[in-house]
Amino acid sequence: MSRSISHSEISTLLDCSQRHAFAYTGALTAGTALKPKQTAMPLRQGRAWGHAVASYHAAVLRTDNRVEAHTTLTAALDEDADQQREHGLYLPDEHAELADRLGRILDHYIDTTDPLPIDRLEHELDVPIPSRTGRRRSNLYRLKCFLDGIHVDDDGRAWIFEAKLRGQLMSLEQISLSRQTRWYAWAHEQATGSEVAGVIVDERLNAAPTPVKRFVTGSRSPRRRSGGSGRSWRRLVCRSLRGRFRSPRRIWWVAG
Fold first, then answer.
1. pTM above 0.85, yes or no
2. CA distance 71 to 78
3. Edge-to-edge strands of the sheet including 137-147?
4. Burial of 125 (0-12, 13-18, 19+ CB in 10 A)
5. For residue 190, which of 142, 255, 149, 146 has the smallest C-alpha distance?
6. What residues form DSSP beta bridges with 130?
7. What angle do CA 150, 161, 40 make, to 5 degrees?
8. C-alpha angle with apex 82: 76 to 86, nearest 5 degrees?
């Protein structure tokens, strides 16, 4: 019987085998893996953000896409709140602060980001991984991927869309070396039989913009102090797995 493993599980195993045993296999706890009573804050924020941003882009042809994005964000956060209530861990003030901060970040994102048509939201892939020899597919393990969405360009090419909320924006080199980006592209090819044109990694800094300050003279403070500069978000498109670069407003990692 095969078992599906995610990018998160593989990353945990590579980081710490004991942590992986506690969380996934139960090898150190009599066969029973330990499950957290609530989702960690970075995962809560990232999941809600990914759903909301994909929803905004998916509703690009509708005039209520901002409303749709906020509704999706609220629903995702409420789902986490229900889990916390079940275990007696719900903190109303924390939930309200998180909802307000992510809502303001989302408004700023919508105001500064061009819409991109997205479909197949929360798309799941589950494909066999290669065996150790690489000659056949494994009978034991499958790779499970959760995609925020798929963008199809004017030429009919499919692009995987991934929205990321980060404490620090990643460099183009870090994006290009990401295992998750490469594995998702590979899994899509295995599942559909056709290569994706690339992976769109849509990054946003996890910080709410602050109002522009004015000095006593009435002049505005430098934009970098307002938290609203264009450096707070960036769209990186990783196309295939080689490294020629060109850089308009959006940075593209282009294949040969």
1. no
2. 10
3. 3-6, 137-147, 123-130
4. buried
5. 142
6. 137
7. 120
8. 150
> pLDDT means per 10 residues in the chain (256 residues)?
88 92 91 86 92 89 84 95 91 95 93 87 88 82 92 89 88 82 89 88 84 59 45 52 32 40
Three-state helix/strand/coil letters over 180-246: HHHHHHHHHHHHHCCCCCEEEEEEEECCCCCCCCECCCCCECCHHHHCCCHHHEEEEEECCCCCEEE
Handedness of CA 21, 27, 30, 32 (dihedral sign): positive
Output the CA–CA distances (angstroms, integers) from residue 66 to 32, 53, 145, 146, in the order listed: 43, 10, 27, 24
What confidence tens digit (pLDDT) does each residue in 203-215 have?
Answer: 898 988 776 565 5
pLDDT the model gives residue 246: 30
Does residue 67 contact residue 61 with C-beta atoms inside 8 Å? no
> Is residue 112 exposed (0-12), middle (13-18) or buried (19+ Cβ within 10 Å)?
middle
Domain range summary for the chain, segments of one domain joined by +: 3-9+21-112, 123-217+230-254
Longest dimension (CA), the chain: 72
User: Which residues are 126's β-sheet partners?
Assistant: 144
pLDDT of residue 236: 60
